[in-house]
TrEMBL record:
Xref: Pfam families: ABC_tran (PF00005)
Family matches, as Gene3D superfamilies: 2.40.50.100, P-loop containing nucleotide triphosphate hydrolases
Organism for this UniProt entry: Actinoplanes auranticolor
PROSITE patterns in the cross-refs: ABC_TRANSPORTER_1, ABC_TRANSPORTER_2
Residue ranges of every copy of the ABC transporter domain listed in the record: 4-234
Single GO MF descriptor: ABC-type transporter activity
Protein name, UniProt field: Sugar ABC transporter ATP-binding protein
Gene Ontology cellular component annotations, sorted alphabetically: ATP-binding cassette (ABC) transporter complex, substrate-binding subunit-containing
Transmembrane segments: none
């Protein structure tokens, strides 16, 4: 087990800053998932952490020793990429044993180690097959077995399940985690898939445009996002992002959504803290809400219903202004009903299609809702995640 640490890690390719001043510590035996959209620098970060790529600036250490000072073969790293390449003319057993051929290990030892690792990844009965007779999931297991047969101290996986079908992917997720634990290997797993990240990681590191946004246990990062990007990216069921303006008056605060307002309870210390943001434009993020009674509520009309089996997810159009998508050009052109007494001032022109600011509501079965139903959805103060114009969290919880 190895502790890996990055300090000020930066990689610039020509004019692209692929990794931007990343500080990150991975504990011995930890399962860390690097999560982010395509092109955000995940693979580059992984290659830098492994010492495969030289940083433009910054350092990487393994147990305190700069990785550049460790001979590549002594780094004890196993890697599995998305495009695993098995040797087509070798059997599964020969593919797995391949990395041991270069060592002086006796044939019997190699056979025993191949059999043991094949059992570990669930392919003991496939050892005499050739790769062309394997499914995508089975091939990926062989690639993992081949990587792990040397009993590495560090295990790096770059989108290993992208080419595997959905059913096998779910099974392999759990098995990879179990395997990494059993082998007590420090593991860094790169993906753009939030379900993989949430279900596999001890900690998630969210990356955007090469900049590390937040690092923490999946539950914490989901529930307590530091940036609008993290809140929006970890959105399952879909996260609602709505434009709002803060108005303080008479000891209370209203959050003006344009078509309606949320009146925050006066006297609550959180309301008082939010009053400091009087007149600011903010983004209100709401995770899918249960149908609940609360001090505040948003009204809207059900415009779509997704049946998830164990519950329904109702899309409720609250007439709000959807916030600009983070990956879209910053030129929103949505209209909004200016019907509140607080003078919501959208910075948008009124030419384009009407707004469809939606809130997601979780409806337990067998309660039924239909498109066109009007709903009053309770919102608690703790449901409100607010972000400033730069996408930074506005924290107003009591300290
Ligand atoms: N060798 C290179 N030369 C020039 N630019 C590069 C090189 N490698 C990566 N980049 C650029 O650096 C940025 C980050 O790339 P990287 O492959 O690390 O992202 P990623 O998050 O792994 O993407 P994906 O999920 O699509 O694999 C991209 O803009 C990419 O075009």
């Amino acid at each position: 087990m190895v502790a890996i640490a990055a300090r000020g890690l930066t990689k610039i390719f020509d004019d692209v800053v692929a990794v931007d001043d990343v500080d990150l510590e991975i504990k011995p035996g930890e399962f860390l998932v690097v999560l982010g959209p395509t092109g955000c620098g995940k693979s580059t970060l992984l290659r830098l952490l492994a010492g495969f790529e030289e940083p433009t600036s910054g350092t990487v250490t393994f147990d305190g020793v700069p990785v550049a000072e460790i001979e590549p073969r002594e780094r004890d790293i196993a890697v599995v990429f998305q495009n695993y390449a098995l040797y087509p003319h070798l059997t599964v057993a020969q593919n797995i044993g391949f990395p041991l051929r270069a060592t002086a290990a006796p044939a019997a030892d190699i056979g025993a180690r191949v059999a043991a690792v094949a059992r570990n990844v669930g392919i003991a009965d496939l050892l005499s097959r050739y790769p062309e007779h394997l499914s995508g999931g089975q091939r990926q297991r062989v690639a993992m077995a081949r990587a792990l047969v040397r009993q590495p101290a560090v295990f790096l996986l770059d989108e290993p399940l992208s080419n595997v079908d959905a059913g096998a992917r779910a099974a392999l997720r759990g098995e990879i985690v179990a395997l990494a634990r059993r082998l007590a290997v420090t593991t860094i797993y790169v993906t753009h898939d939030q379900t993989e990240a949430m279900s596999m990681a001890d900690r998630i590191a969210v990356l955007r445009l090469g900049v590390l946004q937040q690092v923490g246990p999946p539950v914490d990062v989901y529930a307590d996002p530091d940036t609008l990007f993290v809140a929006a990216f970890l959105g399952m069921p879909r996260t609602s992002l709505l434009e709002a303006a803060v108005y303080a008056q008479d000891g209370g605060v209203v959050l003006d959504l344009g078509s309606q307002v949320l009146e925050l309870p006066p006297g609550d210390p959180r309301t008082a803290r939010l009053a400091e943001h009087h007149t600011e434009r903010v983004t209100l993020v709401l995770r899918a809400l249960p149908l609940q009674e609360r001090d505040m509520s948003v009204r809207g009309t059900v415009c779509a219903v997704e049946n998830l089996g164990h519950e329904l997810l109702a899309h409720v159009d609250v007439g709000g202004v959807p916030s600009v998508r983070l990956d879209a050009p910053v030129a929103p052109s949505r209209a909004v009903a200016q019907s509140t007494p607080y003078g919501f001032y959208p910075a948008y022109d009124l030419v384009d299609a009407p707004p469809t600011g939606e809130v997601m509501v979780r409806i337990p079965v067998p309660v039924q809702v239909r498109i066109g139903d009007d709903l009053d959805v309770g919102v608690g103060l703790t449901d409100l995640l607010l972000f400033d114009r730069a996408g930074r969290r506005i924290r107003f919880d009591p300290v």
